[in-house]
Amino acid sequence: MRLSTLAAVVCCMASSVHGTTARAATPAEERCILLNAVTIPPGAIGLPTTGARVTGAQFIAATGAGPTLVAEHCKVTAAIRPLDPAAPEIRFALALPSDWNGKTLMLGGGGFDGVIPNVAGQQTVGPADQPPPVSRGFAVFGGDSGHQGTNANVAFPNVDGSFAMNDEALANYAADALKKTRDAAMQLIVRRYERTPVRNYYAGGSNGGREGFVVLARWPQDYDGAIVAYPYWSAVVNAMGFGRMARAIAAPGAYPGLAKQTLLFNAVMSACDGLDGVKDGVISNPGACKFDIATLRCAGGADTGDSCLSDPQIAAIRTIEAPVAFKFPLGSGETAFQGWPVLSGADLRGAQQLGTTPPVSPPTATQSITAIFWDQLIRYAVARDPGVNSLAVDPENPGVWQPRLSYVEGMLDVPSTEFFAFQAHGGKLLVVHGLADAVVTPRSTVLWWNRLNDRMGTPTVRQFARLYTVPGYGHGAGGLSAFMAAWDSLPTLDAWVDGGKAPGPQIVADTNVATKGRTRPLCEYPAWPKYAGNGDVNQASSFACVTD
Q1: Does the active-site annotation cover 489?
Q2: Distance of alpha carbon 229 from alpha carbon 169, whole angstroms
């Protein structure tokens, strides 16, 4: 379509959209609607595709008021065509503010992705009472990683693994879609603003955290900074932990119902809550918590009700807590899974953790999301046979599935700590993980952090990266948290990258309804917040970050 024709269309659309009084479209509206005609040739994308096209461009007026105002922007949707005609498209979206600050922010996904992030919303761990990135002037974009989730048996479409039957779709999910989406988005951003960005950032949590490590390791020149939350970097290894958990609680008599899950959580809190100097519903130093689950054993070990745990239930919970070493090679070189801190504050209640019914194969919507993730990984990515019983596959002894499991692990997991190129061009990295995460174990992030320091040296790491831990924080918005963290991390990252201002003391807020408004210092690992012995227990100023 010719640009002159499009300009006329823009004028007419402005008249019809804004009522009977005709008016000329603003320049921002015109530039937005003109994006409807854009196609992107394959050569403009750094990995092989058959090109991309805009599927829609809509001008969105500002909505809301005050600090949560969503600024006027152009909402663009687009699709990248695959090489394999049988593979799904990569679909993505952009929020392009009329008042652009010259910077971009890519948002990551979660689970198996399959869903386009809300590009006009807040980034991972971002505070709901502060402006979203688009209102701060960032051009924001994100994609579905190359497939569209449709699993009807789970509450979240991003736990649909059926795409993995296709090689190109699996490779897109593993990494390739990130580069393809970024390159295509940059074409549209430059087309809209007629200039290139001055800074490019990334933010994501869970699988989006894994994706953050992927892009910084493989395409370090594409990004100036990243916010990575509860990273699922050891995705398949962690999923092998899911399989181990699912098999443990599926054993006869082993599943602890909601009442028993509550019993366990309350008993751990009663034993360890006060170790940080105050009983506030948060275990700040999980390492000091030495709760003995045997104190909850039913008399004789048989299940006699919800006030105790049977021997099979205790064995299952100990399996969830315990690390495990694998006796066969994995593609990435990983050898072990670290287990979850369920005996030191992580809450097993909720859809993501143990659900409300024991795991079965095929899965039901009431069982845990983690068990469903293992099921989808085995049936579609590993066995590539929807009829396989995932609970019959032992992650410690996978038998005939071991070679393929190891191969897929090598595709998806990101053990690399080669961030020299990212650091050399001035890149900055903020990592945050909740110490009560019962989905992506915080122990894996500590392992990764220690490896990073061993590989690059602590003085070098200090120049470009920080790891923060949040006591009581589970797996983001989807997990139960004694402390639901909100951290205004984007300005901190931007000030470090753009102004050379290294992060000073940080504050994290709790957004739980019952405790909303309380704050804590956000401590750099290995420090944790200890109550000073006086002052308001709901204020960060009453706590100090300590390592004792």
Answers
A1: no
A2: 25
Asked whether the beta carbons of 173 and 146 are under 8 A apart, the reply is: yes
Task: Transcribe 5-53 into DSSP letters.
Answer: HHHHHHHHHHHHHT-SS--PPPHHHHHHHHGGG-EE-GGGSSS--S-EE
Q: Where are the domains of the chain?
A: 24-195, 237-412, 420-501
- Full DSSP string of 93-135: EEEEESS--SEEEEE---TT--S---TTSPPTT--TTS--GGG
Active site residue 475: yes
* No. of helices (H) and no. of strands (E), the chain: 14, 17
Q: Which residues contact 299 (CB under 8 A, 6 or more apart)?
A: 308
pLDDT band at 459 (very low <50, low <70, confident <90, very high): very high
Give dist(CA 384, CA 162) in Å, integer. Answer: 9
User: In 251-387, at which residue ranges do the beta strands (DSSP E only) sit?
Assistant: 324-325, 336-337
Q: Which of 437, 488, 494, 510 is catalytic?
A: 437
Is 18 an annotated catalytic residue?
A: no
Q: Is the pTM of this model over 0.90?
A: yes
pLDDT of 154 over the 80 cut: no
Catalytic residue among 375, 475, 489, 542: 475
pLDDT tops 70 at residue 115: yes
Catalytic one among 98, 135, 145, 206? 206
pLDDT mean across residues, the chain = 93
Nearest CA-CA partner of 310 in 377, 272, 260, 372: 260
Radius of gyration for the chain, computed over Cα atoms and rounded to the nearest angstrom: 24
- Strand-pairing partners, residue 95, are 75, 140
Q: Can you give the length of the chain in residues?
A: 548
pLDDT 10s digits, 23-36: 688 999 999 999 99
The C-alpha atoms of residue 269 and residue 230 are separated, in whole angstroms, by 22
